[in-house]
Amino acid sequence: MATSVKNNSLPPSLISNLNQVLLSRQQHPIDHQSTNSSSLPPQTRNVDEPDCSKPLLLITNCEGIDSPGLIFLVQALLSDARFTLHVCAPQSDKSVAGHSLTVRETVAVCSVEMSDATAFEVSGTPVDCVSLALSGALFSWSKPVLVISGINRGSSCGRNMFYSGAVAAAREALICGVPSLCLSFDWKKDVSSESDLKNAADLCLPLISAAVIDIERGKFPESCLLNIEIPSSPLANKGFKLTRQSLWRSPLSWKAVSANRHPAAGRYLSNQQSLGIKLAQLSRDASAAGAARRLNSHRKNVEIESVGIARKFNGQQTVKKCFRLELLEKETEKADDNLDFKAVEDGYVAVTPLSLSSTDQSKIETEVSSWISAALGREQRN
Predict the structure, then answer these.
(1) What's the DSSP call for residue 49?
(2) What is the pLDDT of residue 279?
(3) What CA dihedral angle connects 232, 238, 239 and 244, to 10 degrees?
(4) Among 249, 257, 266, 248, which residue's Cα sits nearest to residue 325?
(5) Residue 353, SS3?
(6) CA 113 to centroid of chain Cα atoms
(7) How many angstroms separate the CA atoms of 244 and 338, rounded?
(8) Helices 361-381 and 12-27, axial angle in degrees (round to 10)
C-alpha cells in the first residue's frame, strides 16, 4: 500500500525518502518465526560473549518480558540479521512506573529463552533494567550501540511521558550516555490486535537500522532520545512526522472500592516468591515493625467503602479507605497538527525528540529533522 504525506512541515526530500522506505517495506514483508519466552534456570556467564561482528542492541520495555510488542520487535530485529540482541525487561507490567529505581531491596534476575537473543527478566522497574544492564554487573560488555524501549501498548505522548516507564527506560540510557529510542503503539481497546504490533515492528526497522549506522559514524543526535509513536493502523500510516511534545495526558479516574475487590494483593506474595526474593528482606527492621504492631493492637480499625468525605473519627479509631485508579481513553480535541498526539491521531508516525534539558529544544528539533532526512534516504537507496 502506498503512503502519502499531506500538510507536513518536514523537508520535501525527507517526505519522499520516508514514503519510498515504507512502500518498499510493505511490498517486501519480513517473515517472522513464532517464538515465546519462558523462564529457565540461571545460566553461567557465557552470555558475556556477544557476537562482536554485529552491532549490539539492548532491548527493554515497560509491559514485561512476555509482552507481544517486545517479542515482535525482537523477532523483527533478529530476522533482519544485522544485529546482536540482549534483552533486559521487567518480569511484570510496570507501565506507569515513571523514572523509579529500586533501592534498599533485592532485585532478582532470571534468564529467559527468547530465540537467538540473550534475555533476562528483572523483578524491578524499567529503569532498573536499563541501569543494571549498562552497569556491567549483569553483562560484561560496557555499552551497547543503542537502547530500544518497546514496543509498548498505549500512548507516551505529551505529559504521559512523565508517568511512562517506557520513556523512563530510554531516558535512563540517555543519562548513561547511550543513544536510545522509545517505541509506543497507539493501542485501541476492542479494535487493535497483536498483528498490528507485528506490523509496527516492521515499520520501525528502517529507522532503527539508520540510527545504528549513524551512531557508529558519529552522526546521530547525541543530546536527545527519540520518542516514536506509531498510529493504530500501521499499514495505513501517512509517513513519519517530526513533532513537538504536547501538554496532553490521559484523564485520571479515582474510584472508591471495597477492600475485598483487590485480587492483586493475594497474588503479591506468590509472585515475589517465584522470583526468589531473599527471605532476609522479611527481617528488615523487625523490632520497629513489632513495636508498630503492638501499638496498633490497641486501636480499633474501622474499614469503610468511601463514597464521599469521611467524618472525623475518635483518636483510637483508624479509618481504612480503598481506591483504584484508572487511565481513561484520550479524548479528541483540536490542536496544532505538529503536536505528538495530534499527528498520531491523524495517522502519522510521530517522532518527538526528548532532551534532558529544554533549553536547546529548537536546536535539537532541527538536528533530528536533518538526521532523519539523510539517514532514511540512505536506507532507501540501500
Answers:
(1) -
(2) 35
(3) -70
(4) 257
(5) strand
(6) 20
(7) 6
(8) 50
Q: Hey, what's the cell of 81?
A: 540479521
Q: At what angle do helices 194-217 and 68-80 cross, to 10 degrees?
A: 50
**Which amino acid is it at 218?**
G
Letter for the amino acid at 345?
E
* The residue type at 85: L
Residue 201, amino acid: A
Give this prediction's pTM: 0.71
Three cell numbers written together for 121: 527478566
Q: Which residues contact 284 (CB under 8 A, 6 or more apart)?
A: none
- pLDDT above 90 covers what percent of the chain? 43
Residues of the chain where predicted confidence (pLDDT) is lower than 70: 1-51, 142, 260-316, 329-335, 358-360, 379-382
Backbone phi, psi, residue 355, to 5°: -110, 160
Beta-carbon count within 10 A of 345 CB: 21
User: What does the pLDDT look like over 330-346, one tens digit per residue?
Assistant: 665 566 788 988 999 99
